[in-house]
Amino acid sequence: MSESNTIRLLVRELVLALGMISLIVLAMWAHTGSMPPLVVVESNSMQHDSDGEIGTIDAGDLVLVHAPEKRSIITFAEATDPMNTNYGHTKLGMPGDVIVYKRNGEDSSTPIIHRAILKVEIERSESQINGNCESGVSYQNQCVLSWSVPGTNLVDVESITVKFDGIDAPGDYDCGIQVMGHQEVKFRIEGWVPTQPGYITLGDNNRCSDDQGVAQESSGISSNSGGLVKPVSDEWVIGVSGSEIPWLGAVKLMVSGGESPGITHVPGHSILKLVASILLVLAIPMVWEPLVKRILSNSPEMEQAEYEEAVYLKDSMNSEEE
Question: Global pTM?
């Protein structure tokens, strides 16, 4: 094969590869309505097993992200309430949706991918008088007098007190913490007065330390501008998590710089499975191509093609001799 033919073949293969990648990305964008349609998980805050687990979110996984306007967000509270229409909804190993959001709406901070535990909604409000509130909480030029939490019995309350123990609230959220007397600790909020409506979010592996710091066992997550992350407004939600693609995101983490933790939090088993998957993908063509050739070589069609090629070559040589 000449050098020009080799270059032409390489260019063709490159164009085909880029075309396939583009088609895949466009298909995922059409499916999710989000661009980019995938995010790489960097931390182990959602991890369920130390060795990693398919069906849950581990560091190094790729996660499909659906546009929030294309999919409603179902909280843990709603998914565990038998009276709620969304009862029984599970996603990535637990009840309720996992959302990707900006901390306090900041574009400069790394987005968080955690589960929506509950949503605080405004129940009653009144207009401010000369920019002040005689009662309630000031929020966007109104005075919020009471709140409600879908999926619980909290309706028209001034403060939030709830315990997800299967009794006070239908949902049972075990923090994975043992205290004296071997009593299990449940996710609970006591006497919290919200400053704004929004979602309370929590990493599945964070032992009830929610991002907003409202639970009894919580320290919260800080934003870049200082202070804790506030309840997640709908405008801060980047997307709703869909299916996960295990291990493949570790490739990006290996070459990431800056503030990325790299593969520090990626389970060792995930790295081994990633390497095994790559070797398998490379081995398939090496095994498949000889196998296909062997099968085709014994087929009548191949024998006929070889016969016709031999006749053609013979006729060509006779013509040259004449």
Answer: 0.81
